[in-house]
Automatic annotation (TrEMBL):
<dbReference type="InterPro" id="IPR005481">
    <property type="entry name" value="BC-like_N"/>
</dbReference>
<dbReference type="Pfam" id="PF02785">
    <property type="entry name" value="Biotin_carb_C"/>
</dbReference>
<dbReference type="InterPro" id="IPR005482">
    <property type="entry name" value="Biotin_COase_C"/>
</dbReference>
<keyword id="KW-0092">Biotin</keyword>
<feature type="domain" description="Lipoyl-binding">
    <location>
        <begin position="710"/>
        <end position="787"/>
    </location>
</feature>
<dbReference type="GO" id="GO:0005739">
    <property type="term" value="C:mitochondrion"/>
</dbReference>
<feature type="domain" description="Biotin carboxylation">
    <location>
        <begin position="83"/>
        <end position="562"/>
    </location>
</feature>
<dbReference type="InterPro" id="IPR011764">
    <property type="entry name" value="Biotin_carboxylation_dom"/>
</dbReference>
<dbReference type="InterPro" id="IPR011761">
    <property type="entry name" value="ATP-grasp"/>
</dbReference>
<dbReference type="GO" id="GO:0046872">
    <property type="term" value="F:metal ion binding"/>
</dbReference>
<dbReference type="InterPro" id="IPR000089">
    <property type="entry name" value="Biotin_lipoyl"/>
</dbReference>
<dbReference type="GO" id="GO:0004485">
    <property type="term" value="F:methylcrotonoyl-CoA carboxylase activity"/>
</dbReference>
<feature type="domain" description="ATP-grasp">
    <location>
        <begin position="202"/>
        <end position="400"/>
    </location>
</feature>
<dbReference type="InterPro" id="IPR005479">
    <property type="entry name" value="CPAse_ATP-bd"/>
</dbReference>
<dbReference type="InterPro" id="IPR011054">
    <property type="entry name" value="Rudment_hybrid_motif"/>
</dbReference>
<dbReference type="Pfam" id="PF02786">
    <property type="entry name" value="CPSase_L_D2"/>
</dbReference>
<protein>
    <submittedName>
        <fullName>Methylcrotonoyl-CoA carboxylase subunit alpha, mitochondrial</fullName>
    </submittedName>
</protein>
Amino acid sequence: MLPNTPRSIAARALPRIHRVPIGRLSTAALAQYLRPVAGSAASRSGLPLSVAQAGNVRTQSRAFATASDSSFATLQPSARKPLFDKILIANRGEIACRVIRTARKLGVKTVAVYSEVDASSLHVQLADEAYCIGPAPSSESYLRIDKIIDVCKRSGAQAVHPGYGFLSENAGFAEQLAREGIVFIGPPASAIVSMGSKSESKNIMSAAGVPVVPGYHGTNQDPGFLQQEASRIGYPVLIKAVHGGGGKGMRTVNAASEFHEALDSAQREARKSFGNADVLVEKYIQRPRHVEVQVFADQLGDCVSLWERDCSVQRRNQKIIEEAPAPGLSPELRADLSAKAVAAAKAVDYVGAGTVEFIFDNDTEKFYFMEMNTRLQVEHPVTEMITGLDLVEWQLEVASGNPLPLTQSSIPLVGHAFEARIYAENPRNNFLPDSGQLLYLSTPEPTHIFAPSVAEHSLAPPSGSNEFTPVVNTSAALAPVVRLEQGFEQGAQIGVFYDPMIAKLVVHGRDRTEALRMLRGALEEYRVVGVATNVEFLRTLAGNEAFVRAEVETGFIPKHFDELFPPIPEPSHEVLAQAALFVVLRENPVPTSPSPWSTLTSRRFGGDVYERTIAIQSEDTSAPPMSAHVQSRPGGLFDITTHTASGIHTFRGVSAHLASPTSVASTLDGVRRRTTVVAQPGTAERLHVFDGARKTALVLPPPAWVLALGGEVGGAGKGALRAPMPSVVVEVRVAVGERVEAGQPVVVLESMKTETVLRAPVAGVVRAVGCSKGEMVEEGRELVDVEEDVGGEAEVKA
């Protein structure tokens, strides 16, 4: 019999996994993913399930399908069709983990698929079975329909949950599954074709009397014709891929001279992401909001609205923060949006979860149909929070042939919820994605794994009211909720092949003010080292006055750019002192218990006093250098003097110790502090200091003898172009000896499904090309070197 250790408990609690050792799953991951559902007594109290209880989860979860907290429990047993025994999840990351949790709750076994680079991913560890389906590129793995169907047959999976992205809106995939006798957990292929096509869906909505944005939605893809249509519509226009979503294949064009280059880029990105390069062109609304309605339909013809979400704040045409319900909508507008969304779904005999997206013009207060996403959305948790419903459970039940458990007038709407997407990206570098290993990851403690139970707090609409007009309950005595949707653990590798989203942080409160306060507090607890993230940006955004007032629009970030990206402040003297203490204590730890080595008088060459000056730099290499002088005093105390550009400060009689390998506890000027400090090794070691809510990255310059060994010390020349992130080279547009103008495109890169065009920084002649099409390049690699013109054209040498 196995002993009761966390590793052995994990081995009993989780089923056998192909080629992945169970022991890699951390205790924290077990606590999160094996915590009871929100309806259980433990989760209602906000208490996490201990690892010691994990062995009982399978038994508890299998009983939940008929538990009172399930919205399908009201169905008569004789009328209820059984769920699938086993499903395959044709996806990865946090959505795969999300589906696994609901499946486990319902007693449904899960099959994961993974690419070679995802072999040790969290979704692989959590599933009952896992199968490798190919190399890292999604075209050779997650988009391979034949391989996924083969795994279904080998594993005995009866149905496929596609998640979002990849094959989730691929009608051919749904049709092929049907031919093989495998259920697609989603809408019929006909609905995917009709509503997945932005052109056809707009025609359907126009016929139904729903206003659409002026534009060209036809099939003629001739570049010259499309440019004529753009001129007819009037700039600015939006080029948008007909198929797909997530901001892929979308470009804003402000002038005719930019059209062809934007069209080429949008089509290329659309072809890679969705296998179809067709685009539409429509008027670009200057101050729009993005408001979308969650709909759900069963196989019996019933369809309901689960209310709306606001997803207006975006970067690179992709959402980063969402909320439900949308702030500032009148009951009449909410009812109108919901009614139109339900009508759209019924018009194509929709089944399952879908989202009807609208553009709301802030200037005219009119709304226009934009598109329908025929899948579960990334932001579905905010809808779950205000309704108390598990949408993945609804998907499984509806796909099994069961009717919707609630009528429109019974759908709750309680409180307010936010979701913040945690991305591996650098907001201060135009939100370019980042990649690398999650060297350190500490997250806020979730209170719930699913949504809170809100049914008892909801109010029935008054008699005679529109069925799409709920009574919004903002006074419910509901405890605030923090929920975390995570697909990666500490130590995981964030690669360049897939979307850079690490996790989703979801909160719920009685009203928008409380929910926003919960969001800010939870973001302050996030600690990530190893890749750049948008956590600090999200915290700044959540505290922005205009955002707090709900003055949202899709152009929110550029409009409030200066407020969202204030100058990076000089590191405080307290931060420098804590960093210096970390370095000193790491090398000379203070003993925690008496011993001869700590009680005997020390002897050092040159004296008994420890003394050291530590040179420190900001990550901004243009900032002035800093330093901290540390000197020991009797009784294990220190005097620390910090030097910055703004002045000098001395902390006297500082008591300090390492509370953990990544935590310094000290008393500075009478204030007790506990600061997280994470070291990132390298020639120049980086120290990531988390002091309260702020992260400060410091660099310890390498010693002179290291620099003397050679190697590149300075940055690139003025005409050199370097890879801003690990990327795949899509196109090289210049050759050695070719003359280029400043701003001319020279290299196109792709990282995490996003294209980036690098342009010549100066006018001159190309002296070197350091990359080729299809090559993987690391961050900082010199790709092209341009010799700048000096007083005329650059001299062309033989």
